[in-house]
Amino acid sequence: MKLFCAYAFTGEDVEVLTDRMRQVVDTLNSNGHKAYCNRFDEVVDELQEKDDIKGIFSEAFKNIAASEAVVAIITSPSRSIGQIMEIGIAMSQGKPVYLFEHKSAEGSSYLPRLVDQYFSWKSIEDLKNSLLKI
């Protein structure tokens, strides 16, 4: 299945975020999926260098349209407007949304009630094991 990976960027440690998302993509791909993450997209890198926020979201929405489902990685109770927009776009297109929420974020939003499948995780190993369930 072609999967779009949604994650929070603002306020995150870029190295930790990049490592986590690399493991997410690798785990999904090892399970027969084709995972897209804009953290590893040269087009998005160029848009970020230009501070082209509208272009970044346009690219994200285009890639969501080309995907069959969205995998959303929630790491904290902090809200990510961009990630919420990506989830909303997927829902508006009738695409399944798989939510992987860190234990620290449990109960902080209604997102688990909106998505198609919900998983809770507390370590990177938990996250990877949960990812293998889709």
Keywords:
alpha/beta; 5-stranded parallel beta sheet
Description of the molecule:
The chain has 134 residues and is α/β, with parallel strands linked by helices. It is 46% helix and 19% strand. It contains 6 helices and 5 strands; from the N terminus they run E-H-E-H-H-E-H-E-H-E-H. The longest helix is centred in the first third of the chain and has 17 residues, at 14-30. The termini are close together.
Topology:
Blueprint: E1 2-7, H1 14-30, E2 34-36, H2 42-49, H3 53-65, E3 69-74, H4 81-92, E4 97-102, H5 111-114, E5 117-121, H6 124-131
Parallel strand pairs: 1-2, 1-3, 3-4, 4-5
Helix pairs in contact: 1-6, 2-3, 3-4
In short, what is this structure?
The chain has 134 residues and is an alpha/beta fold. The protein is built from 6 helices and 5 strands.
